[in-house]
């Protein structure tokens, strides 16, 4: 048995019930016995040493490589037990130095004058579209859904998210809208259809660009919805009445918030409104988890609001509204994870077993971040103008009701057409 790993785990796991079988065959049972139990087996001594030295990176890698094996429960159960305890108890002098190295590397990299945005986006979003079809909703919304009212399906919650954002944008027919990070085009098409506006969606993913254009063409929206392979930082000579950005701000990078908001103000008309939807943290994290940064979102960073708002204020953009969605992404990720795991064989055929374990670990770790690390989603409504947004929030619910009626009417017409 690895004495170092055993000691680390005994300090860490005070709550829950986690059974660990070491490569030597020896077994320990950790925690107070409460909650959903889980058990793991570590296949070799080298894996044990790697986890002790760099748990933030190596535990995920060992799971991907099949060297950490689940004996009871699943990887979500294991991570939930770990996250429900105080991770600081697992710190040693050696692994703290390694963790500091990860922080310093990410801090430096985020400030280098090298544009790696295209590479970072392609790493994740240019994967085979069939992968995303395994777990996303019918519109391929790859961001936090809005489960209002509670208990609705994933498809309904993603429609509710689009409806909620559209309501906050205060759209009027004929307005020009910019979507920064347009994904597979669902949000842009919804805004164009529901509010009769012209939308320009920009992305750095060639795969998403291709799919978005094809979808807009099939929906007969190519004259009102245009998609471009475009970095927001190099846009010139254009202004928009509305700007929306959903799930993209996490890729802007620690050192670039000031530049981001200055560019958004430049692209926004004097009476314009912007809606920014992003993941946030309750404290300044300094760096992304090294496993997530290496395998899932290179260059990504989830900020605290205290890191974002000073950059907004420096541009003199007015914060018209801040809304916190505390649990909606946990519910979204659970739906994604359950759908993905249910179609394991298809995922393995697309890639391989290691890729499946990587993606399963990513979805499970992300869900536990919202459950145990208290991550949340925030929506910032911004404008240069004092009078661009009503002085009370009643308009949001009213507009949502109108949009819901539009959706129902459209579905009835679609059924009649069929």
From TrEMBL:
InterPro entries: CFA/CMAS, CMAS, DUF7884, SAM-dependent_MTases_sf. Residues 7-85 form the DUF7884 domain. Pfam families: CMAS, DUF7884. The keyword tRNA processing does not apply. The keyword Methyltransferase applies. Keywords: Lipid metabolism, Methyltransferase, S-adenosyl-L-methionine, Transferase. PANTHER family: CYCLOPROPANE-FATTY-ACYL-PHOSPHOLIPID SYNTHASE. Belongs to the CFA/CMAS family. This is Cyclopropane-fatty-acyl-phospholipid synthase. It comes from Sinorhizobium psoraleae.
